[in-house]
Amino acid sequence: MSASAPVHTILRLSGEGGGYRIEGQPLPTGWQFRVHSHSIWDEPDQGDPVDLPWLPSLDAAISRINRGWPMLYPSEVHPDFISAIRQRVLAFHDHTPLKASELDRWHALGVTAS
Question: Could you tell me if residue 21 is inside a domain?
C-alpha cells in the first residue's frame, strides 16, 4: 500500500438519515477500496476515521453498504468506474426493478441509459 497514492471518491450515495462514500486508491496491482458511512447524528466536526480497512475489490466495498444501494441517491461516480457501477446497478435492476425516478438519478450521472 502506497501512502502517496491519491485517494479518489468512487461512489457517493445519500439516503434518509445518512449516506456512504466509497473511496478507491490505485495501486500497481489494481485498486483498493474503503467505505465511509455517515448519519445525520454524526458530529459535524468529527471528520472521517483514518483506520477504515482497505478492501480488495469494488464488490467487497459495495457489500459493506445497504443492500438496496441502487435505490439511494447517487451524487458522484468516478468516471473510470461508470461502467463497473452500471453493471452492478443493472444487475440489481434485473432482480429488483428500480422505479423510473431511481433509474433517472443514475442516468443523470451517466450510469444508465434513459
Answer: yes
Is residue 23 one of the residues assigned to a domain? Answer: yes
For residue 37, the surrounding DSSP H or E stretch is strand 30-39
Report how far residue 21's alpha carbon sits from residue 68's, in angstroms, rounded to the nearest whole number.
Answer: 15
For 90, the domain range is: 8-108
pLDDT digits (tens, 9 = 90+) for 38-83: 876 655 555 555 568 999 999 999 999 989 999 999 999 999 999 9
Whole-model pTM: value is 0.86
Backbone angles phi, psi at 103, to 5 degrees: -65, -35
Arithmetic mean of pLDDT, 17-38: 94
- Asked, for residue 74, whether it belongs to a domain, the answer is yes
Does 2 map to a domain?
no
- Kindly give the interhelix angle for 82-95 and 100-108, rounded to the nearest 10 degrees: 170
Cβ–Cβ under 8 Å, residues 41 and 30: no
- Retrieve residue 3's grid coordinates: 501512502
